[in-house]
Amino acid sequence: MASTTESMSRLLKLAHKFNCFYLSGLQKGDCRPFVVEGQQVGLVRPDVAAQLARFPEVFLVHSDVVELNPAFRDYNERSAKVDAVLRRFRTDGAFIALKGWREECYEVRAAFSKCPLLKMDRSATCLFGIRQYGVDINGYVLCPERGMCVWLQKRAASKQTWPGKLDNMVGGGLSVGFGILETALKEAAEEASIPRSILDQKLTPAGSVSFFFESERGLFPNTEFVYDLELPLDFVPNNSDGEVESFELLPAKEALDKIFAPDFKTTSCPVVLDFLIRHGFVSPDSEPEFPQLIELLHVPLQSLYNRTQKSRRLENGDISSN
Amino acid sequence: MASTTESMSRLLKLAHKFNCFYLSGLQKGDCRPFVVEGQQVGLVRPDVAAQLARFPEVFLVHSDVVELNPAFRDYNERSAKVDAVLRRFRTDGAFIALKGWREECYEVRAAFSKCPLLKMDRSATCLFGIRQYGVDINGYVLCPERGMCVWLQKRAASKQTWPGKLDNMVGGGLSVGFGILETALKEAAEEASIPRSILDQKLTPAGSVSFFFESERGLFPNTEFVYDLELPLDFVPNNSDGEVESFELLPAKEALDKIFAPDFKTTSCPVVLDFLIRHGFVSPDSEPEFPQLIELLHVPLQSLYNRTQKSRRLENGDISSN
């Protein structure tokens, strides 16, 4: 039996908020698997499926699945065909999500360790429920007076998503052609001007968080690779790419309070929460729903999409389009 | 599509080993939910169900569910009735698991944050697939020459489970009447004679791991609350309760190699692995299946048992025993 919202701890309520799709939309079952080369890579909402059905030479919209035309031969052909449709949607104004078009692509894969099947502009991935991967750096200071303090950023008012919201010190998506550590180093330089000498000495991978969020833009099954970075007491981050309005150093306990505020970017809460848990600021003795909370910081995104076209053929005898 | 065993990284293979029930047995579906007061609290294998059916005044063994007699009024009555049956099984020699009878009970709950419904000897919980909770302490040293080093223990040859195997420095189950931190402090004193002054200053909660293991003894859905403890360079743990044969200090990288050895207690691997991930010794750039690995360190045990007697009544109209 699921706990009712009323009886939950406020941390568990927050974990339900950033997993709103995992805990409700997914169960409703009104999204269809998005299948490429016989492998499920995403989920498509009914409103998106209706638009995709306008391009039957690219998307085969069946009653129970949306399939990328299996006649496309390879990564490049798939990527080009999808891109052409997405640019049509962008011109039409069919989806809010595409207002954030980036000319920056994410890989589409059946699982993180599998070969990419195509690439897609990052703004469009939420229309198909494609798993997104990002990198986040928890910048912290061991302050003699205030104890552990955490650097947070306030996003620029001009950002396409979550403008003006509070966020982790440094974060960025994993684009085509960039490694994980490489992305962390690039973002640390661009967003916070952190010298390479500090990064080389102190940047430490510390795991990952996974959650499944839904907004009016679409579906966000996100995995964030997290890094911890101890910074010198006198270091002050300084933005160099115009994406950050300001930085703020807060004692860890105050950072914990901040993530409940409406001006904190919802999809960055898991990263801060994971950091505070790993460093002892949320303990199982003080948080009655600790195991549930940890589960909701690591939802099983890699095993969520396990439908294969093969099993569908076996189940249904054949594939009929609607 | 699941990766084949051959193509997996060795860390992912290990994660499959300590999740052998989660990844195979659970899917087979030959275990029946164990229901108490309308709430699923565990799973019962066919061999166990057959034995439970000998005591129909205590266990109602239906074709699709095993139910504790709902006529039992409260925690005490349920605990006493189950205990009486288990002591009969113990005398009979019906189950290997009960050779490890402890006279130490674990709570049985629908979820960690829910009220206990009954208590049961810890040796018997694996017969019912009851979620077990434990506490583990990662003792480490920041060595000037060798970098981060980790203390491991070799279990005493006389231990009822996993005798002579390598294990975390300190670990223990969460028994009835003991808090999480309280258990950590007790076990640190008993198993490794760690002075209270060090624990008060340095013991830090650092999250939890969850996995679902199966052995010939039964089913183990385990959540371990993990603590990190930085120890002084000159501190040497010393066992005081006869449960540990020896302790060994290893560089973190060697500890990573140790967990692949057959003489490492399988169900302690997740704790060491989580520690090494959190401290940067396994990174997403070096481990291609990092997201899958993290998922398998945090399988969703709290949401696994979600069958309620109410939904069963609605589905089937009524409850019929077989």
Automatic annotation (TrEMBL), chains A, B:
> Could you tell me what this protein is called?
Nudix hydrolase domain-containing protein
Molecular function via GO: 8-oxo-dGDP phosphatase activity
Quote the Pfam families the UniProt record gives: DUF4743 (PF15916), NUDIX (PF00293)
Q: Which domain of life is it from?
A: Eukaryota
PROSITE patterns hit by this protein: NUDIX
- Which SUPFAM superfamilies did the record assign? Nudix (SSF55811)
Q: Which residues form the Nudix hydrolase domain?
A: 132-274
